[in-house]
């Protein structure tokens, strides 16, 4: 049944692409190779477990996780921008939040964050763009919700680059449990004022975090180990094949309706 899962992922991806096409120049494509950096920060009342999949600095060097690829984007030719994160062929990204690391946790938050920016700092007036869609391919588990989004900040007062424009896109997805997915595609639209072009290594990072607040100051959180990994693409449960088939038909129907609409127009 694995072929069926691949067909489903392809159909949903095609539907999303037709709904909001983006020029190839404005697509930031990241394939995670499984490199992971683990970090645990603690204080007397909270801890932060960070799992970094990848990062990049303006110098072209990586920091934590895999070194993310360079980016070429031109908002003068297209206001649309797309970030894609995917696993290698035949694999999927698995995120299993570690749960409380101490007994006295009174607050626990698990998130997945993607940030891409043309500079580490910005200044001036901010004119936000929009986040148009967040689409998971081959998702198993509860779909994360967008907890925060800072879209395409246009900084008229900045002095670098010389044209006074910079952009920054950061999306925080809140997790409600373990998930497995083959791809994550996020589509954005920059503000009309933006005509900025960028080519090089962005200030970028992709990571998952689990933060807990606790009340017993004598407790010491222990690093949970890796909780983000690459796994083989799961087989489809035959018991759920009916609902999956219906979803596939719906995606194909969306494609057909858009084709017909274009012919009529």
Q: Separation of termini?
A: 38 Å
Radius of gyration, taken over Cα atoms and rounded to an integer in Å:
20 Å
| Number of distinct helices | 2
- H and E order: HEEEEEEEEEEEEEEEEH
Bin the helical content: 10-25%
Q: Assign an overall shape.
A: globular
- Outline the biggest β-sheet: 7 strands, mixed
Structural class estimated from helices and strands: alpha+beta
Kindly estimate the percentage of residues that lie in beta strands according to DSSP: 35-45%
Q: Mean pLDDT across all residues, rounded?
A: 81
Sequence stretches where pLDDT stays below 50 over 5 or more residues: 1-19, 238-265
Number of strands: 16
How would you characterize the overall build of this protein?
This protein has 265 residues and is α+β, with helices and mostly antiparallel strands. The protein contains 2 helices and 16 strands. It has helices spanning 2-19, 241-264; strands at residues 27-31, 37-42, 46-56, 66-67, 71-74, 80-86, 91-95, 105-117, 130-137, 145-151, 168-174, 179-181, 183-189, 197-200, 203-214, 228-232. The strands form 4 sheets. Strands 2, 3, 4, 8, 10, 11 and 15 form a 7-stranded mixed β-sheet that branches. α1 (2-19) packs parallel to α2 (241-264). The chain starts with a helix and ends with a helix.
What's a concise summary of this model?
With 265 residues, the chain is α+β, with helices and mostly antiparallel strands. It has helices spanning 2-19, 241-264, and strands at residues 27-31, 37-42, 46-56, 66-67, 71-74, 80-86, 91-95, 105-117, 130-137, 145-151, 168-174, 179-181, 183-189, 197-200, 203-214, 228-232. The radius of gyration is 20 Å and the shape is globular.
């Amino acid at each position: 049944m694995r072929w069926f899962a691949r067909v489903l992922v392809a159909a949903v991806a095609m539907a999303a692409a037709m709904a909001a096409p983006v020029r190839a120049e404005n697509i930031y494509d990241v394939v995670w190779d499984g490199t992971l950096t683990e970090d645990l920060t603690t204080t007397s009342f909270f801890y932060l477990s960070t799992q970094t999949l990848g990062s990049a600095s303006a110098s072209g060097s990586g920091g934590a996780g895999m070194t993310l690829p360079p980016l070429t984007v031109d908002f003068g030719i297209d206001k649309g921008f797309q970030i894609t994160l995917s696993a290698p062929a035949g694999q999927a990204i698995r995120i299993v939040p570690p749960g409380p690391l101490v007994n006295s946790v009174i607050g626990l938050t698990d998130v997945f964050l993607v940030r891409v920016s043309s500079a580490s700092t910005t200044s001036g007036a901010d004119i936000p763009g929009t986040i148009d869609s967040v689409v998971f391919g081959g998702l198993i588990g509860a779909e994360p919700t967008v907890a925060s989004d800072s879209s395409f900040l246009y900084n008229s007062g900045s002095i670098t680059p010389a044209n006074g424009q910079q952009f920054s896109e950061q999306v925080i997805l809140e997790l409600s449990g373990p998930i497995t997915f083959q791809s994550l595609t996020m589509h954005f639209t920059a503000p009309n004022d933006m005509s900025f072009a960028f080519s090089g290594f962005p200030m970028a990072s992709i990571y998952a975090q689990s933060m807990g607040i606790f009340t017993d100051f004598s407790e010491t959180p222990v690093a949970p180990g890796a909780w983000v990994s690459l796994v083989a693409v799961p087989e489809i449960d035959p018991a759920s094949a009916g609902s999956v088939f219906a979803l596939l038909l719906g995606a194909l129907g969306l494609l057909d309706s858009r084709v017909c609409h274009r012919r009529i127009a």
